[in-house]
Amino acid sequence: AGKFYRPPSCYHCLQEEVRELLATAPAYLLHVDSPRRPWNSFRGGPWSSDEPISCLQRPRSLGRLRLADCTAPTVRPELLIDLTFLLPRGLYSEAGKIRLHFFGSRSFARWLLSPMVLPKQEEMLSSILEGLPGQQALSAVLSTIWDRLADLSAPPEHQRLAYWQRPLHQVLFASSWLSFLDPRLRLLLARLSQGSETPHPACSRCRGREVSKHVTADMPRRLLRRLHVEEISKNVYAFPAMTADFCRIFLEELTSFYASGLKSARPNSMNRYGAVLEEMGLALAVADFQRQVLLPLARAFFPSIGDELDGHHAFVVHYRPEAGRGDQDLPPHRDDSEVTFNMALGRSWQGCRLIFCGLMQEPDAHQHQISYDFPGAGWAVLHLGRQVHAAENILRGERTNLVIWSRSWVWRVAGGDGQLTTWPHAGPSDPRCLPARRRSPAQRRMATNSVLSGTMAGIVHRKVI
Ligand SMILES: O=C(O)CCC(=O)C(=O)O
Ligand SMILES: [Fe+2]
């Protein structure tokens, strides 16, 4: 192995890189996953590996380093440093990442910032990477970047971190949520990870795991039925996701968070009542959940757009009939996500079904497909962000849902939904799939924009992964 960082060119080389890195592991490099193939797996690459990075001053790992190889001719070797959990508020970007590209085998020639970085953030992010020497061992590059980041990081007493110190249920913060998976979803995930061993086309020495291309193609419908996974409408999947225990302690945690007096921004530009999980200190737990649970599901249900989910915005929403205590309903909209996970946490309610219409770019965007009543707490739907949806009026009780918007850097860099063919809308529009008349002019405008324009105009890009 050479002295300088060379982009790994096959699975074995990647393993070698990881071994080398571990041999001189900096303190913030806690753990290295086995290399995996994150996307475009049918082309035989690229392989990659995620390394959680931890800062000693903080209780948990704060970043993620991704190494990817360059076996696919169109893919550049790259080192992706995910700064999502590290940067001070206001500094982190839409993608929350700095992307470093390596050209040639020995030189660290130049870096590129994510195109989703806002200009003022770009300036600050640039200062982190400025003047890094062209040729350095990977560990040296990392440590320089790390020092600069530490200087820029918000002090630990920052509110965003404050709730970490005294959560009610440490288990929600300190470990992965995997132990709370509904057994049926656990089975589905196990089945999805089985795959078949296929030779790696680039080096043909190592063998990789072929991930299911599409769940319905690769899996007997009988099995899905047995696991209670149902495609309730085209591209909308409903299934039992988490245990009643999870929902219970999550609601308790929310109550405790609200009682703490710490403030959270509103969940999104449409829901007014709820909390943003990152502001409770749950961003890492969400990131783990995304990687371990949502990503395999998205790859199976939504190949291509769901192949590489790496950003998230997670929040809870509350619906109650009484004005001032929750939202009463939600106008039709698309989400600022590639894939949305939406799970009922409780408690008990009547009304407030989810209305699903068509996909933004498709002729039936404004036609009603299905109204879905969550069978109970722990049940979830997984749908594309561009699936137009709404929530009916709540009649009684309270519905609190956990929503995770997953975003894909690669998808957006490649043009996002703009890559898709947009069909003219056809047929009569269903009023449930158009902005409601009784909304205030501002809300109506917002819903109109988000539903009709096919852009994310109605969604404020306030929140970033
Ligand atoms: O559970 C709901 O009512 C839907 C929430 C939703 O669509 C959203 O927050 O984007
Ligand atoms: Fe939504």
How would you describe the overall organization of this protein?
It is a single chain. The protein folds into 2 domains: 11-156; 172-452, q2cbj1_9rhob like domain (Jelly Rolls). The chain is 26% helix and 24% strand. The protein contains 12 helices and 20 strands. The longest helix is centred in the middle third of the chain and has 19 residues, at 283-301. Mean pLDDT is 69; it is low at 1-9, 36-48, 54-63, 68-122, 153-160, 196-213 and 446-465. Bound molecules: 2-oxoglutaric acid and fe (ii) ion. Fe (ii) ion (FE2) is lined by residues 333, 335, 389. The site of 2-oxoglutaric acid has 11 residues, from strand 18 and strand 20.
Overview in brief:
This protein is of the alpha+beta class and 465 residues long.
Key features?
465 residues, alpha+beta, Jelly Rolls, 2 domains, seven-stranded antiparallel beta sheet, five-stranded antiparallel beta sheet, 12 helices, 20 strands, globular, disordered N terminus, disordered C terminus, binds 2-oxoglutaric acid, binds fe (ii) ion
CATH architecture of the largest domain: Sandwich
CATH topology of the largest domain: Jelly Rolls
| Amino- and carboxy-terminal Cα gap | 36 Å
- What count of domains describes the coordinates? 2
Low-pLDDT residue spans: 1-9, 36-48, 54-63, 68-122, 153-160, 196-213, 446-465
Per CATH, the class of the largest domain reads Mainly Beta
CATH H level of the largest domain: which superfamily?
q2cbj1_9rhob like domain
Please state the overall shape, judged from the principal axes of the Cα atoms. Answer: globular
Mean pLDDT: 69
Largest sheet report: 7 strands, antiparallel
Q: Which ligands, by name, code or SMILES, are bound? A: 2-oxoglutaric acid, fe (ii) ion
